[in-house]
Amino acid sequence: MTDLAISVSGLTKRFGEKTVVNNVSLDVRKGEIMGFLGPNGSGKTTTIRLMCGLLEPDSGEGRVLGHDIRTERRAIKRKVGYMTQRFSFYEDLTIAENLSFVAGLYGMSPKRQVVKDTIADLGLTARKDQLAGSLSGGWKQRLALAACIMHKPALLMLDEPTAGVDPKARREFWDEIHALAHGGLTVLVSTHYMDEAERCHRISYISYGDLIAQGTVPEVVQGAALTTYVVTGGDTAQAARLLRGALGVDQVAPFGATLHVVGRDAMALKTSVEVVACQTGCNAELSDTSLEDVFIQLMGAAQDNMQ
Amino acid sequence: MNRFFSLHRLVALLIKEIIQMRRDRVTFAMMLGVPLMQLMLFGFAINIDPKALPAALVSPTQDRYTRAMVTALELTGYYRFIAPNATEDEAEDMISRGEVAFVVTVPSDFGRRIERGDHASILIEADATDPSVASGAISTLSTVANSALLREAGQGHQESNGLEIIVHRRYNPEGITQYNIVPGLLGVILQLTMVMMTAMALTREVERGTMENLLSMPANPLEIMLGKVVPYLIVGAVQVVVVLVSAKLVFNVPFVGSLSLVLAGVFVFVLALVILGYLLSTVSRTQMQAMQLTFFFFLPSLLLSGFMFPYRGMPAWAQVIGEVFPLTHFLRLIRAVMLKGADFSAVAGPFFALVLFAFGLAVLALFRFRKTLD
Q1: Does A101 touch chain B if contact means CB atoms closer than 8 Å?
Q2: Partner A, chain B 199-238, Cβ-Cβ below 8 Å
Q3: pLDDT exceeds 80 at position B221
Q4: Does the pLDDT value for residue B87 go beyond 50?
């Protein structure tokens, strides 16, 4: 046995003419939380579905928990917990009914006890007879997570689990994920949120089907080799107008009264920023590049490649 | 701009609706192509005064009087003698299987009696399970047969006692329509609910996104199919009991044959329907589409199966299309067993046709099932 929970290479999936996943290779070590990032429609969901046996790849191969993703889908399905992007339990069933349905499918025993314990862990004992459809977004997400880990999977795949969930519930959710990973569970989680990406051990960035960057957060930030200036004070709106399209400037993004200016060419950027700061009476300071800046840069680059 | 009604708001709504209508190909096809197809199909196929009904002739002597009468009957257009020289047993067998609609029996002394100017009679037995089938043919009968015989016997026998035609409306002597309709309704009710409910139940999973979850858990296609199908089989069983009991108590429909044979037929029929519904659900993306497909299937089967209009009255090509529907075979089976008391050997044909449907559809459904999401 290797220490890789997921090891896939060259995964490609086409729907008709469109290549949705293009030659994606991904290694996820056992017990780590891998963040899976990328813009909307970039093939994250499809890649996850390929890896948990819901779709068959057009080419490429790999192993998930030691099982071949083409030939051993049933074994993978038994050992993987997959939480879909959209709430996909039965809204017209109660919490308890949903959970005992899942427990039945996995043949867990004693079923009643497992379901009862799961509901107690969730803190939903008082509401167990409530219809799942009447739960709020945050509770639905907790119910879905509980249902996905009830059969004690070795690998958990979460597809944008926190979309539409409030910050407190998100934080609790992530505490839970870390607790699970600490217990030896491997987690692959796709997300759009940068703060969530920073909570992962490692991240992979996929864009329009291609895997673009992979590593720990500092590695990815460093790998992008970007320079960032923060412009404050004075007429930042005017500064933004002038900086857009200026030599060496790739991104200009307002953050409240400040301006983040990012570029690949450190020298050219420095010159442009200093000139504009002078003209508008602003103050420019060198700053740390954030993960978000890196992603915006990666996204722009990928789109350029497409054209 | 009017607060209560504005043209630009209406136009915006209309444009949006038309765009959506065009996007939904299935609906669009249903609205334009299907009515045209149905118009052609049903316009030509349906005939409430059926002609060229199959008949058998039992005539031991086969003399010239018999031949004259057979010719005359065929000339009316109502009769087509597919068994012109059957024995009594063969003829009985054929009418009970529904292969012929009439049996004409000419006694062996018929010719002699005519020549002697004696009172002569022939027997016409009509399968009256569907009263409308027999009525036209019977009403033209006596005049046609009489004049044919008189012509054949020559002028000298003008003063003969004439011909007596005895008509037996078999299985339904009073010509009560309910006898034919109520057993048929069992088939129609089962067909509508079983196919539609099953088709919608599975499509609902796809539409609500629960299918993705179901597929990511360890359940195989056979388990999912059975899990979907069995509850509706139970609903079907309840419907069967309700219809059969009310056929007896409310409509007084006779139940001549074996109940267990009817139930066996119903079981295979319902199985075929539920699997068909399941199959439809594998090709439709939304519940709406599933419902449309069900109706697309439902209407022709209603009209071409022999439920509403006599099957024998349709042109040959329409009868071939009719064979495609399980309902056609089910109607033959249940009417034969309930009204004629047919035994298994008499309804083996429709029974095995239903078995074939169920089996074929099941294979197709398992094959069509998406183990994966693509």
Answers
A1: no
A2: 208-213, 215-220
A3: no
A4: yes
